[in-house]
Amino acid sequence: LATAKAGRDRVVVRLESPGGMVHGYGLAAAQLVRLRDAGFHLTICVDKVAASGGYMMACIANEIISAPFAVVGSIGVVAQVPNFNRLLKEHNVDFELYTAGQYKRTVTMFGENTPEGKAKFEEELQQTHVLFKHFVEKYRPQLNVDKVATGEHWYGQDALDLNLVDKLQTSDEYLLALLPQHDVYVINTRKKATLGEKLGLQAAQMTDSLIPAVMNKVADTLAKANSTLVQMRDTKF
């Protein structure tokens, strides 16, 4: 922003994300908004996936370009919370939670969740979804938000038909087309080195192998104790 020329320079972002935490993607989206507000033409290319929080970022672009089979959309909110309360009771383990404020904790992993708490939690999900829809509608007014904000995702051609994207093309094709008329600069961010990498040791590799082993042991123990293993994973992407 400090050295580029607004109104003349363009910014192209290669975006690949299935989404994540609301606050994290809200911040990432806000950073992209700064580019548009500064007067830059912002193009976002999606070669594989821009879903949920990923689409929250993508919708800010002046132009969204998608590969033919990229996954786009998933304008919705999801929360998964396992509850071990019955398992604890079976093993005579008490769980006590102290809060100040009626809705400081609505649902928990270890406490006994109440209908009131569950209802409040669902209400908060709906409120977040409304904010998400309004955000998308602001930057993509050509969209029929009620039609696409169902949590569904679409592949490139269908996404184009629904105005979720503006053009079908890979990022490589798009950038090659710009080369004859523009100077193209690739900007990469450097990953912060871990402590193990800084010391030249194998600590990072040891940790990577140790943690899965510990988690598998915990999973086996839970399975034996409760005969049901709770899994939390996104089966879509």
TrEMBL record:
Signal peptide residues are none
- GO annotation, cellular component aspect: plasma membrane
Q: Which domain of life is it from?
A: Bacteria
Q: List the molecular function annotations (GO) for this entry.
A: serine-type endopeptidase activity
Homology family? Belongs to the peptidase S49 family.
**Keyword Nucleus annotated:** no
User: Peptidase S49 domain location, by residue?
Assistant: 36-176
Residue ranges constituting the Peptidase S49 N-terminal proteobacteria domain according to the UniProt record: 1-32
* UniProt cross-references to NCBIfam families, sorted A to Z: PRK11778.1 (NF008745)
Keyword Protease included in the entry's annotation: yes
Q: What is this protein called?
A: Protease SohB
- Where's it mainly located? membrane
The record's section on InterPro entries has: ClpP/crotonase-like_dom_sf (IPR029045), Peptidase_S49 (IPR002142), Peptidase_S49_N_proteobac (IPR013703), S49_SppA_C (IPR047272)
Q: Which Pfam families match?
A: Peptidase_S49 (PF01343), Peptidase_S49_N (PF08496)
Q: Can you cite a GO biological process for this protein?
A: proteolysis
Q: Which UniProt keywords apply?
A: Cell membrane, Hydrolase, Membrane, Protease, Serine protease, Transmembrane, Transmembrane helix
The record lists the organism as Acinetobacter baumannii
Q: Where in the cell is the protein located?
A: Cell membrane
